[in-house]
Structure formats: C-alpha cells, structure tokens
Amino acid sequence: MAETPLAAGRRIVAAIILAGAMAPAIAAVPLIIAPNWAALTPQKQEILAPLAGEWNQLESWRKQKWLEIADRYPRLTPEEQQRVQRRMKAWVKLTPEERRAARAQYKKLQQGSPEQRETLKQKWSEYQTLPEEEKERLKQSAARSTANKPSPRPGVGHPAVKPTVVPLPTLGATPQPPGSVISPAPSAPLTPATPPAPAQ
Asked: Which pLDDT tens digit goes with each residue over 144-175?
C-alpha cells in the first residue's frame, strides 16, 4: 500500500525532531577518527611519507586535512605534486613555534584583501622560479635580518612610569618626616655649620 502524503510528512517531521533531540549527543562524539600510520593504504603512505615519523602524534583533525590532500594528490599535475612534497618536507623540519607562526601568518593572509593575496601569490610564483642557490641566499638573508632586528624598547606602548627618587640624608642632618622634601646639599665647600638665627 502506498504511503499517503500526510503520513510521509509526519515521518519527515518525526525524523527532524529526533535529529534535533540527538544533536547534542552527536556533537559530543568526534565524527572522524583518523587512522594511525599502519592503517593507511600503501598509496597514502607513499604520498604522505614525509609525515611518517610524526603521523601517529598528530591530532585527528590535522590527519584528516593531510588525508584530504592525499585524496586530491593523484589528480594534481606533476609540478603540483612536487610542490606538495616539498611543503610536507619543509613542514616536518619546522619547530612547534615555527609551525604556530606559520599558521598565524596563514590566517592573517586569508583575512587580507583579494589584491594582497594576488600580489603574494605572484611573488611566491616568482620565488619558485628562482634557482636553489638564490633561494638559499634569500633564506639566509632573511634569517640574518631577523637576528639583527633590535629588540623592542622597554615601556613602548605602556604609560611612562616616573622613577621614585629617595634622597639620601646628609651627614649631620636632622631626620625629616616622611613625605617632606630634603633639599640637596650645597655645592659650596663644607664649612663648620653656624647655628641658625633665633626665630623672632
């Protein structure tokens, strides 16, 4: 017997309500757990070979990103495949701090205008055409300029704090109450003190 449109509509509404009720429980369960290195296909192991040493320590979402790249890899041109391999090898050599900086820089670039991204893409293309010796020279030059960069001046961006000057008492001076100002010693040569004139 064929289902009536009213019954089909009720079934769809019930499914939507059930899905809504289960949403918090589903959201709490990770949707995809990326496999360990041994569980990857030989083809994916070959593509992702530069990451083999650290694959099992990567977070699931990072593994998933790399697996997506491995899925697209066979459809890439040979030049694009070489570029992916170079980037993986370079990524593995980075320290955790350098990786964080690279991710932050990538996010910053993604927020830039289309013109800025196009300019950067053009510069990157020009860089890729350089001979390896020139690339190495540029890397060393950038490393030197970063090393020679002056450290930030202390207090920049912060309100100026006036140093507290605590005058030292002079010999033979009478103690002053806190908060009072002690005048500096005279610059004339020291002579025996004369008693002050009597107050009138």
From this structure: 876 676 655 555 554 554 545 445 454 554 55
- Residue pLDDT, tens place only, 53-109: 999 998 898 899 999 999 999 999 999 999 999 999 998 888 989 888 888 888 888
- Residue 74 has, within 13 A of its CA and on its CB side, a CA count of 5
DSSP summary character for residue 111: T
Residue pair 124/106 in contact by the 8 Å Cβ criterion? no
Distance between CA atoms of residues 106 and 112, nearest Å = 10
CA atoms within 13 A on the CB side of 134: 6
CA dihedral 82, 86, 89, 92 (to 10 degrees): -130
Residue tagged 């449109």 (tokens): 5
pLDDT of residue 23: 53
pTM: 0.45
Check the CA dihedral 89-92-93-95 and report its sign. positive
Query: What is the crossing angle of helices 96-110 and 114-128, to 10°?
Result: 130
Two structure tokens written together for 105: 């820089």
